[in-house]
Specification:
Elements (H helix, E strand, L loop, with lengths): L2 H38 L4 H38 L16 H45 L3 H95 L3 H14 L6 H32 L23 E10 L19 E4 L10 E4 L3 E7 L8 E5 L3 H7 L2 E9 L5
Parallel strand pairs: 1-5, 2-4
Antiparallel strand pairs: 1-6, 2-5, 3-4, 3-6
């Protein structure tokens, strides 16, 4: 097996693999995955279309990555398989010409060589055999006087000419067949180049969309981080500036309950640092209070202990009280403000509101539910209705639909 033939086999196998995998993905796998998601999705049409578009981009990007790896692996396996039959075969493609096109060009060159050879053969028969034979026989006939011998020579000459004409006809048919094959190969070449261009165009389009998606994701992440910075700003400010234990402990408690809802690692780190700072200030104030108490009663040697309950209410009254209708929901990864939805009966949970009634970022108390942050919105949440987040569908069903009292404890920037 020579080097050229081996390269043709390997390149043809790799091209067929790439074409088959791409055809299977775009005609079977991708439509099936999108249809499955479409059937199981529960949400608005706008949300579904956004999800399907994002999912298609991810699946196509993942397919091309995996296909590149598979092509490289298959190439290595084929090289190992054919290495015993050929030595020092360099499969590096010259230029950037597609493999299938290179193979077709090689075949086309072979056909051109055969056609040239057939033309020479045809010319030899037409000019040499026919013209020269006739010239020779004419000269012979002029010298021969025996009628019977002339008849025999004429028959022989006729047979030679007939055979020459048959060869000419055969050569003509063969050239027609070669021309037909050449046309077929040219059509195959154009079809292959068109398919490869289409695949490259789709790949380039997906890469462009992926770049745009990454850019948009970066912008969204910046907005989310800015919102989360605002969310913890009040508590961080209290810890930095206040020396009142009740205020410090309430801010520490608020930050502790907010951390599970945060996405930005920078904001989470800032919240944890502020909690540590607040705890140090509380310990320092407790130590100072204890020292003062011991100094006030030195003769009895008694110490005074001050006890504080973490997260205790500051005793502030509600800014506004509303009677509203409530529903329940679960699932989802991000709220309208960019935080994670949580249900924490002992801390701060997440609710969806109509921002025109309760501003986003407000701290509220919902009867029967607990303290929550108005962090989310919903298509059906309009007017005097709120949607309470739970961790499971069973909890949502158990809550059902009921009237509740909503106390607004603090507006955004006040807690």
């Amino acid at each position: 097996m020579n080097r050229k033939h081996t390269m043709s086999l390997i390149n043809s196998a790799l091209t067929n693999l790439k074409h088959d995998e791409a055809k299977k993905f775009y005609t079977q796998i991708l439509p099936s995955r999108l249809e499955s998601t479409r059937k199981s999705f529960k949400g608005t049409t706008e949300e579904l279309n956004g999800l399907l578009e994002e999912m298609e981009e991810d699946l196509v990007f993942e397919f091309w990555e995996n296909l590149d790896k598979k092509i490289e692996q298959e190439k290595e396996e084929l090289e190992n398989e054919y290495r015993p039959q050929m030595k020092n075969v360099n499969l590096q493609e010259e230029g950037n010409q597609p493999l299938a096109t290179e193979i077709i060009c090689d075949q086309k060159n072979e056909i051109e060589k055969l056609k040239a050879e057939l033309r020479r053969e045809k010319a030899r028969h037409e000019k040499t055999e026919q013209i020269e034979y006739r010239k020779d026989f004419t000269e012979i006939f002029s010298r021969i006087k025996d009628e019977q011998l002339l008849r025999c020579l004429y028959i022989i000459a006729s047979d030679i000419l007939e055979e020459s004409l048959k060869k000419k006809e055969t050569l003509t048919v063969t050239m027609d067949e070669l021309s037909s094959k050449e046309a077929s190969l040219q059509a195959l070449k154009e079809e292959t180049e068109s398919s490869l261009k289409e695949l490259e165009s789709k790949k380039s389009e997906q890469e462009t969309k992926m770049a745009q998606l990454n850019e948009e994701q970066s912008k969204v992440s910046s907005v989310i981080e800015a919102n989360e910075q605002k969310l913890i700003a009040y508590s961080v400010s209290i810890i930095e500036n206040s020396n009142t234990i009740s205020e410090l402990q309430e801010s520490i408690s608020t930050l502790t309950y907010l951390i599970p809802t945060l996405n930005s690692s920078t904001v989470i780190e800032a919240a944890n640092n502020s909690i540590s700072q607040g705890n140090l200030k509380v310990e320092k104030i407790n130590a100072e209070e204890k020292a003062k108490a011991e100094a006030a009663i030195p003769s009895r040697g008694e110490s005074m202990t001050v006890t504080f309950t973490p997260g205790a209410s500051s005793g502030s009254t509600a800014l506004s009280t509303l009677t509203m209708q409530s529903t329940a929901y679960t699932g989802g990864t991000l709220t309208a403000t960019g935080t994670k939805p949580v249900y924490n009966p002992g801390g701060i949970s997440t609710i969806a509101v109509d921002p025109s009634v309760i501003p986003l970022g407000s701290k509220v108390y919902v009867s029967g539910y607990g303290i929550a942050i108005a962090a989310d919105t919903g298509g059906a949440i309009n007017g005097n209705i709120i949607d309470l987040y739970f961790n499971s569908e069973a909890d949502c069903i158990a809550w059902g639909r009921r009237n509740v009292t909503v106390e607004i404890l603090a507006f955004p920037g006040q807690w």
